[in-house]
Structure formats: structure tokens, C-alpha cells
Specification:
Blueprint (H helix, E strand, L loop, with lengths): L8 H11 L6 H6 L3 H9 L12 H5 L10 E2 L32 E2 L2 E6 L10 H16 L10 E3 L5 E3 L17 E6 L10 H18 L6 E3 L11 H11 L4 H7 L5
Parallel strand pairs: 3-6, 3-7, 4-6
Antiparallel strand pairs: 1-2, 4-5
Helix pairs in contact: 1-5, 6-8
The chain binds zinc ion.
Zinc ion binds next to loops.
Amino acid sequence: MPEPKHTDRRDAMLSIARAGVAGIGIAALLSGCSTAAERRVKARGGSLGEPIPEDPIVVNRPWTPDRNAVAVRPGTLTDSVPAGVYTRQQWAKGDPKPWLADPMGMIRRITVHHDAIDAAATGSPAKIAARLDSIRRSHLARGWADIGYHYAIDAEGRVWQGRPLTLQGAHVADQNQNNLGIVLLGNFEHQMPSPKAVESLDRLIATEMRRFGISLSEIRTHREMARTECPGRNLQRAMDATRTRGGRLASLAAGDISG
Ligand SMILES: [Zn+2]
């Protein structure tokens, strides 16, 4: 049973109020991803997180495993995080609840998000840790196993482990299977992603593509999979550029430049 697709906002609100979260707006905490945008979609009668019917990538092309795809099993090398990544033990105030999530199995695709929170994701690791734990608590309040994303990247370019890769994430409704979720902290509908964050994103994606045998065509943004503004127009633009021939991610993936 996958995790719930819809938020019970009242329960989440109560839970967050009880948790006494301060410093970041409650509305933003409830977002997980693209609150305002998803509210607008809902107001238009759209269905949250559903694939866009005319999107040929989502509708017409079945998932085909890459030849070199590697399953992620607990206790294996692929269960570990790449060097330099802040582990969840460095920020999360509790363990995931694996009984609430499906196992990930193979990782065949990667989806990029923003957290849609306007507060600057700069400053000390302690400040970022608090932001991540706030997001995690808001996701737990939805009845989820843990923070929904597998990695987060702050504006300083630091990479943070989120939900363990052994567990399916909760970041694209109905399309979490075999899907590694990465969130950049910020609201890139209004802000520009920092060069450091974008470089870390490219390098993390390239590392995980190599590790799990994922092809460039399986690197998507949330809005390419569902009706949402996530990851915001400015990060979308960066993702469009980096994936095209000569872009940094395309070059890393092709081995033209070293990771
Ligand atoms: Zn998203």
C-alpha cells in the first residue's frame, strides 16, 4: 500500500501546532512541494499530482529497466550515501517508519523538486537541519514514513540524506515507484537557484545515475510528471539547460567531464 496521496491538512496543521514549529510559515510547511501551485491546480478542478494526459513521456512510454540497474537492498553498498553527503543522523530527530512505506527495489528514475519555502536556505548546517526536520515532521503528520524526498540540497550546495534509498519516496503522486526524489531548498518560482546548489544537484544526479545505471532520459522535474509548478520556473530552466547536449549534467553523464 503506497503512502496516502492526499493531505489531511487539518490533522497536519494540528500536529504541527502541537510540535511547536517556529520560524517557517505553517502554510509552507504543509506544502512538501509547491503548495500555492497545487492549490491553484485544485481550485481549477485539477487532480493533484496526476500525470498530464497529453504528456507523451508519462502516458505513452512504459518504464524499461536499464541494463545495469541495481536494486537497493538494506545493508548493501548501494544503501549507502555518496561521500560528502550529510547523513540523516546529522539532522533527523527520529528514524523512518519503514512499515509505512514500500521498499524501493530498483532505482530507475530521478525526479527534481523544490520545497516552495521562501526562507533562504543559506547559513549554518544547524539552520538547514532545523528546516529539514520541520519538513520531515510535516510529512510525518500526513501519516508518511519519513521526509518524502531521498536527498535535499541547500543554497550552499550541501547535500543532505533524506529518506533512505531502501524505501520508496513520497514525492510524485502515483509515480513514486523506483523513483529517487531530490529537493532543492527554496522557492524557485521566485528565487534563482544558487550556482553552488545547481552544481551539487548535477553532480549528485550524475553520481546516482552511474551508481544505479539510470539514463539521462529518466531525469525529470516534478512538473514533467504531474500538474504542478514544482520545481519552479527558474529551476526548471536550469534543468532544461543542464540536460541538453553540452549542458553540465549531459556532459557528466556522457563522461565528457569528470564528476
Ligand atoms: Zn515537487
